[in-house]
Write a structure and sequence with these properties.
Length: about 400
């Protein structure tokens, strides 16, 4: 059972601090990503002011993000905003913000399953939720995509009451050591951004790529819009290290041409300024998994693979006729865990399709880990935003 409260209890409220503004912030690792989390009540409702705060907090635009909390990569240029939900089908509402080191754009359209893993721990740490049992389960609505996930975290009793347990034996590739497991059950992920699971209406499309010719792709969205293409179709093995792929300008140029064409096919319009669809090279597995992947997000090769990209790639593996299905090694009729290989290891998805409709996903579940790294205030220049005492008092009542 989860009890929601209207005001946090750990940190204070935004305040003026000399020439700067101090804003309560919890810096969280979620899966293989990390970034600052904020209570929605601590930020202005005005989108322009909110985005300015996020950019200043991260230090964007700057390739090193030297004047902010960003880690100079897209995986560490993320932020989360969380509020108690007033809807009957959700406990929390999560706004994911994707920033980039070199850009002044705050993208609120994609989802991030890694940062999602930190939402319930953050809510408990910040006082938005109160733990009442050895585990705490909350339904989280991601505002970016309208998806709801049921997330469970361990909250054992301690000397001073229940707390979020971060220590445990769960291991995920891409994160050193082990931690407590966080269970994420996605309740409805098909067509998260696109119109449907298979937005072109086909399991496979043929697209012309300059310098290559016609290439078979699968355009699919089960939580993350992906364009899946066989690495061999673009003259690569799919086993190259990420550093080599990131230096391969010819490949990146071809992937961008393909991405722009597929964006139109998927009903997304001109995606030149968007972070999706992601591009995923696939090849036969080599480590006992179902498929091997190299994921571009969208222009940089991921050191592993994003949570929802893994969910979507796994889904493509079990749908007959897709590019991924051609290369996947899954026993006939098998369902359940699908292991997606990536440069840092593998990612297992508990996946089920509707037997009566093999293009309908009825379950997408996985385990992640998270950890609170810092709690305090992030300081931004006062000219970026100065909180109104009256407005803050009204929001926190």
């Amino acid at each position: 059972m989860v009890q929601a409260t209207s005001q946090g209890t750990t940190n204070g409220r935004p305040r003026v601090h000399g020439a700067q503004t101090a804003i309560p912030c919890w810096f969280m690792r979620g899966g293989t990503s990390k970034g600052p989390f904020f209570r929605a009540t601590d930020l202005p409702e005005d989108a322009t002011s909110r985005d300015a705060i996020l950019l200043a907090s991260m230090g964007s635009p700057d390739p090193r993000q030297i004047d902010g909390l960003g880690g100079a990569t897209s995986l560490t240029s993320k932020a989360g905003i969380v509020a108690v939900s007033e809807r009957g089908d959700a406990d929390l509402e999560f706004q994911f913000a994707q920033l980039q080191p070199n850009s002044d754009v705050v993208d609120l359209t994609p989802n991030c399953g890694n940062m999602l893993a930190a939402v319930v721990p953050f809510a408990l740490e910040s006082g938005l939720l109160v733990a009442e049992d050895d585990t705490t389960t909350a339904r989280v609505l991601t505002l970016n995509t309208g998806q709801i996930a049921e997330i469970t975290v361990p909250t054992p009793a301690g000397e001073f009451g229940r707390y979020v347990e971060y220590a445990g034996e769960a291991q995920i590739d891409g994160v050193p050591g082990s931690a407590a497991p966080i269970s994420i059950n996605f309740l409805d992920t098909a067509g998260s951004v696109c119109s449907s699971l298979l937005p072109t209406g086909h399991v496979r499309d043929r697209v012309e790529v300059p310098g290559v010719g016609a290439v078979d792709v699968t355009c699919i969205d089960n939580g993350q819009p992906l364009v899946i293409v066989a690495a061999a179709a673009l003259g690569r093995t799919g086993y190259e290290p990420t550093t080599a792929l990131n230096e391969d300008q010819d490949l990146k140029s071809r992937l961008q041409d393909l991405r722009l064409a597929c964006g139109e096919l998927m009903g997304l319009g001109d995606v030149s300024g968007r972070n999706y669809p992601k591009m995923t090279l696939v090849s036969r597995p080599t480590q006992g998994g179902a498929i091997n992947t190299r994921s571009f997000i969208p222009h940089v090769c991921h050191d592993s693979i994003g949570v929802l990209a893994a969910v979507t790639a796994a889904t493509a593996c079990v749908i007959e006729g897709t590019v991924a299905h051609d290369l996947a090694e899954i026993p006939p009729g098998a369902r359940g865990q699908v292991s997606v290989e990536h440069p840092a290891g593998e990612f297992s998805i508990d996946l089920s399709l509707d037997p009566a409709n093999p293009q309908r996903v009825i379950k997408s579940a996985l385990l992640r880990t998270a950890r609170l790294l810092m709690a305090g205030d992030v300081f931004i220049p006062r000219h970026t935003w100065t909180p109104s005492a009256d407005a803050l008092e009204e929001k926190h009542q």
